Amino acid sequence: MTISIGTSIDLASIVTKTIELTVISFYAFDVLPKIFVWKKPILWKLLNALLITSIVIMIPMSIVGFQNLGLPYSQVKLKVMSLSLSLLLFIEIITGRDATNESEKKKLTELEKVRRNPNGYKNNHYTWEEIIEHDRRSDCWCIIHGKVYDLTEFVPRHPGGEIIYDGAGGDCTPMWESYHPLELAKSRPPEKFCIGYVRDYEDFYSWDGDFYNTLKERVEAKIPHKLRRYDVRMYAKTAFILTSWFINAYFYFTYNDYISAAFFAFFSAQVGVNIMHDGNHMAYSNNKWMNTIAGCCLELTGTSCIIYKRSHDFGHHGCVNHLELDRAFDTTFPLLRLHKGLPRLDYHRFQWIYGPILYSFVNFGDMFGQYDEIAWLSNYPVRRGFISIKALASRTTVVFAYILMYWVLPTYLFGYTHMYSVWFFFFCLMSHGYTWFFAVNHWTTEAGMTDFMNISQTNWGVLQVENSCNFGTNLWYWNFLSGGLNYQIEHHLFPGFIHTRLHEIQPIVRETCKEFGMKYTDFQDFWTAIKSHVQMLYDYGQPDEDEHLKKD
Fold first, then answer.
1. Is the pTM here over 0.85, yes or no?
2. How far apart are CA 548 and CA 542, in angstroms?
3. What is the pLDDT of residue 23?
4. What CA–CA distance (Å, rounded) separates 109 from 195?
5. How far apart, in Å, do the first and last CA atoms of the chain sit?
6. Interhelix angle for 526-541 vs 351-358, to 10°?
7. How many helices (H) and strands (E) are present in the chain, helices listed first?
8. DSSP for 365-434, written as a single string
9. Which of 57, 125, 191, 488 has most Cβ atoms within 10 angstroms of its Cβ?
10. What is the rounded CA–CA span in Å between residue 499 and residue 278?
C-alpha cells in the first residue's frame, strides 16, 4: 500500500518498522534490565534471554532471507513482529500471579470468622506470606501498626477513594499516619475491621516521639484538614496548563517542527509535575473523582497513573531513600549508583558525566518499563498491591495509543526520518522537564540515606525531613514550574496537601525542625541544588574507603 503525499510513502513499511522498534524497545528497556538486576527464577531468566536473542538476531536474519527469496518481506515482518509482541505480553502476564484468581471457594472470609468468634481477633496471627495473598479488590488486607485489617467492605466508602488498593497486602502505616488528621491517626482504624496481628511484626520506623505529632498539631491549627486539598488557584493553573498542552499538541502534530516540539515538551512535563502528581496523591481536590481525573492526566504523556500511584505513593513516599524499599534504587541501578549500599562498578566513576545524559531517556523508561511493576514483589512488608488484568490492558492501550499518535501518524504525514528527529528532540526535552526536579529532591550531598543496617527505629517524620531537600522556596516561579516539588520536605510530611498551599506551612515546618534540632535543607535556588546532585553522583562513583583498605 503506497500513499502519495509529496513523496511516495509505503504505509506497510512504516507500520512494520514501528512495530519492530517497539518490540526491541520493550526488550531493551523492560525485560533486559530485569534479567541482570532482578531476583527472578532461573527459568524466567533463561526464557527471556532466549527471546531477546531470537528477537535481535533471528528476525533481521529471517527478513534478509525472505528478501533474497523475493518474498514480500513487509508482510512477513509484520507477522513476526506482531507474534513477538504478543508473546512478550503473554510472558509478562504469566510471570506474575494472576490478580483475578480470587479465593471464592472459601465459605467464610477471615473477617466473618472473626466476627463469629467470641474471642474476636485476639488469637489470630498471620505471616507475611499469608498477608500478601490478600492484595485485590475482592480481598483487601492492610497492615497498620502491626494489626491486620480486612478493608474489603470499607474501601468503596473510603473518602479518599480506592488508593487503599495500591497498598493491599502490605504495610500501610506510613500512609495512615501521613494522610489522616492527628486525632484520627491516634485512634487507629475501626476495630470492627481488625482480624488479627502480623506474626513477629517489626516496624522499620518509630512512631513515638513528639516531633511529627507536634508538627501535625501545629499545621492543622493553621490549615484545617478539610482545607488542605482546596485551592481555587489550582483550578486556574490546571486550566492554563491543559489549554496550553492541547494548543501545543495541535501545533506539534500539524507542523511537527522543533519549535512546536519544544513547547509541547515543556507543557507535557508541566502536566506531570503540576496536575498528575497532586491527583495521584489524592491532594488535588476534596472530591475523589476530581483526584482520579487529575491523576489520569499522566496518560497524556504515555505513562500509567495506575502503576505510578503504587510505585510512587507506596514504594517511595513510605520509605524515602531506603535502599531495600525505595523503588528509585531498583529502577536506576546498575546504570547509576545512587546509594552507597549498592555495589560500585568501575564505570560509575563517570556517572556524574553520563548521568545527566541518561536523564534524557527517563520518559522512555517510564513508558515501557512499567510492566515490571505488575510482577513486582520486593522485601516484606513492601506490598505487591492490587493490579488487575483490566489495569494491564489499560496500560497496554495507552502504549499503543502513544505509538500511533507520536510515531505512526507523524511518519505518515512527514516521513520517518523527519518524525524521528523531531520526536527524539521532544522526548529528551520532556524527560529533562521533570526528571531534574525529582533528582534534586533526594539525591544530593545533603540528603540522608538509610537501609536495614542503620534504620534502627528512626522516627518516620524525622527521616522525611533529613532524607529530602527543598530548593528555591523564596522564588515563586519555582513553585509554579515544579508543581510544589521545591517544597519537598513539606510534601513528604504532608503528601495529602495541595501543592499550591505548601508554602503556607513551610514556616511551621522549618521552625519545628529547628526546635527539635533537626537538619532542614533548603537550597537557595534550583541551580545550587543541581550542583549538589552532580557532586553526589561524582562522590558515589568514586571508590569507597573500604575498597581502598582491601587494596592496601
1. no
2. 11
3. 59
4. 10
5. 69
6. 130
7. 27, 10
8. HHHHSGGGGGG---STTS------HHHHHHHHHHHHHHHIIIIIHHHHHH-HHHHHHHHHHHHHHHHHHH
9. 488
10. 7
Cβ within 8 Å of residue 484, ≥6 positions away:
278, 491, 499, 500, 502
Identify which of 130, 132, 40 has the alpha carbon closest to the alpha carbon of residue 91: 40
Run of H or E including 3: strand 2-5
User: DSSP of 267-302, one letter per residue?
Assistant: HHHHIIIIIIHHHHTT-S-SSHHHHHHHHHGGGGGT
Cis-peptide, bond into residue 334, ω within 30° of zero: yes
Report, in this order, helix, strand and coil percent for the chain, each rounded to 5: 65, 5, 30
Which residue bears the cell 498477608? 131
HSE (side-chain half, CA atoms, 13 Å) at 269: 24
Residues 531, 516 contacting (CB under 8 angstroms): no
Q: Are strands 194-198 and 125-126 parallel, antiparallel or unpaired?
A: parallel
For 3, phi then psi, to 5°, come to -120, 135
Asked if residues 140 and 150 have their Cβ atoms less than 8 Å apart, the reply is yes
pLDDT of 74: 55
Using 50 as the pLDDT threshold, list the residues of the chain that sit under it: 1-8, 93-107, 377-383, 548-549, 552
Q: What is the distance between the alpha carbons of residues 548 and 492, in angstroms, rounded to a whole number? A: 37
Q: For residue 439, give the amino acid letter.
A: A
Q: Which of 71, 58, 46 is nearest to 20 (CA)?
A: 58
Q: At what angle do helices 59-68 and 73-95 cross, to 10 degrees?
A: 160
Burial of residue 224 (CB within 10 Å: 0-12, 13-18, 19+) is exposed
Q: Which residues contact 205 (CB under 8 A, 6 or more apart)?
A: 173, 174, 455, 457, 458, 459, 460, 463
Grid coordinates of 519: 537538619
